[in-house]
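Data deposition worksheet. Section B asks for the primary sequence of the deposited chain exactly as it was used as input, without tags or linkers unless they were present during the calculation. Section C holds the resulting structure in token form. Section D is free text for depositor observations; keep each observation to a single sentence. Incomplete worksheets are returned to the depositor.
Section A, Depositor: J.P.
Section B:
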Amino acid sequence: MPSDAANNPGDPAGPDPTTDTAAARSADPATVRPRFSGRELAGPTMIFVGAFLLSAAIALPALFVGKLQVLPLDTDDTIVARSTAPAQVLDQCSLDTPAARVVTTEVTRQQRIVAVRPAGRSKVTLQAGTSLRADDKLNDCSDGTISAIRDRVTLDRQTATFRRNGSSEIQYDDEQAPFQVSDRTGFTYAFAFDMPRRDAAFFDPVTRISVPLRYDGDASVEGAEAIRFVAEVPDTDLYERHSGADTAGRPTVIVRPASWFGLPGTTPIALHLHHRSTWEISVDPDTGTILDERITIDERYRPATQPSGGFSLVNLVTTLSYTKHTRDAAVARARSLARPVTVWGRLVPIGAGVVGVLAVGAGVYWLRRESSDEEPAPVVATD
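Section C:
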């Protein structure tokens, strides 16, 4: 028997064909139109990506360059310099003979700079061992060593200057305690990144004094651009400066009869070792790496009470310059340090900026074209 609802079409409880059709349509995914189509999203997406790349181009140098422009923690460099002409050297073996003897020989300066502890994100400690040696063994009593210094200093990795709460000690002889240098200022083994072309300060480990470092124009080292600095270390009494300590077994004071020095008489006299030098330093302007050094050294024994223009006995007179191998290695090291800075500070930001501009431009063009395609065609009235 048919139900009352089926026999009464006006009954509200009966099925509604319109409602059933709408529900069926909404349940069919094929009939649901997305809110935005791919064509509509293309333009805004390109603009968003372009704006992101432009922001990245601005932010990348600030985020990365500062962290890359620091002294490396893996520093381990060997530097060799040789005399540009035969040097004058006092034969230490003649200390036990009736008269002093000065010989002519080639001289080699060898230096090894190694990063040691303490070191971290903002600081690094460099230990530099430097020796001067005569190429020809002077005699059986000497191995040819003229001087040897071990310098240990904690530097700020960004400024390449001494950190006051770090280490700074210099040792001139294994049998002597190192000297503590708490007032150290100036550059010695490395300079700062983006080194400005202006005067600075230089610290000389031999005399433990800081002197002006004069900017002397630009130079070229093995095809690489360099900044040239000059430092003049004044005449310094090493006996007084080193508190009477020897340097690598070589005395800072000699007491001998006057005749031993070639002077008349046999009365013993004391001569102090005096040192002065000129440093011509070529520095890579981008990384602060030292590419070349020309060092002129004049060391002489002079009576303690005598003016500088009086009698003197040569200990070492020479001019030293980096070997070609050392210069080539320094240039390669500078380029290696500069490469990541160039990539993240210049190439990547430029690339991101160019792509960002193109993406924004393409997005704007796309939106304009889509807008023109959606404009309705004009209605033409007919009679």
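Section D:
The longest strand covers residues 268-283.
DSSP finds five helices and 15 strands in the chain.
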